[in-house]
């Protein structure tokens, strides 16, 4: 999957960095900050800041509409299309 987005060299660098102690320590630090200081309790969990300095947490992959609304971005909600259901 990484190779669909990154070059072979970039993938090698990412995988090598994942084994380094300083990178592991930073991941632990970031995780503890999200959990202890910001209230994260699961994934996906987003801490979103708007251009006015206001920040809000969002939890769950179904929260994109709420995030876009918070940021003042135009969007369309998901629409169900009419089909001939076999149910």
Architecture overview:
- The model has no long low-confidence stretch (mean pLDDT 90).
- The protein has helices spanning 8-17, 21-37, 64-71; strands at 45-49, 55-59.
- It has 87 residues and is an alpha+beta fold.
- The protein has three helices and two strands.
- The chain starts with 7 loop residues before the first helix and ends in a 16-residue tail after the last helix.
- It has a domain at 41-75.
Tag the structure with descriptive keywords.
single chain, 87 residues, alpha+beta, two-stranded antiparallel sheet, 2 strands
- Determine the mean pLDDT: 90
Poorly predicted segments: none
Q: Sum up the overall morphology in one term.
A: extended
Query: Radius of gyration from the CA trace?
Result: 19 Å
The strand line-up of the biggest sheet is 1-2
What oligomeric state best describes the polypeptide chains here? single chain
Strand content: 5-15%
Quote the distance from N terminus to C terminus.
Answer: 36 Å
- Helix/strand-derived class? alpha+beta
Helix content range:
40-55%
Give the SSE string: HHEEH
* Individual helix count: 3
Biggest beta sheet attributes: 2 strands, antiparallel
């Amino acid at each position: 999957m990484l190779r669909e987005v990154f070059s072979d060299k970039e993938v090698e660098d990412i995988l090598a960095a994942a084994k380094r102690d300083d990178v592991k320590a930073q991941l632990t630090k970031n995780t503890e900050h999200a959990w202890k200081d910001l209230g994260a309790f699961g994934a996906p969990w987003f801490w979103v800041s708007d251009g006015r300095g206001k920040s809000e947490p969002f939890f769950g992959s179904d929260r994109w509409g709420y995030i876009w609304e918070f940021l003042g971005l135009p969007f369309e909600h998901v629409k169900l299309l009419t089909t001939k259901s076999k149910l």
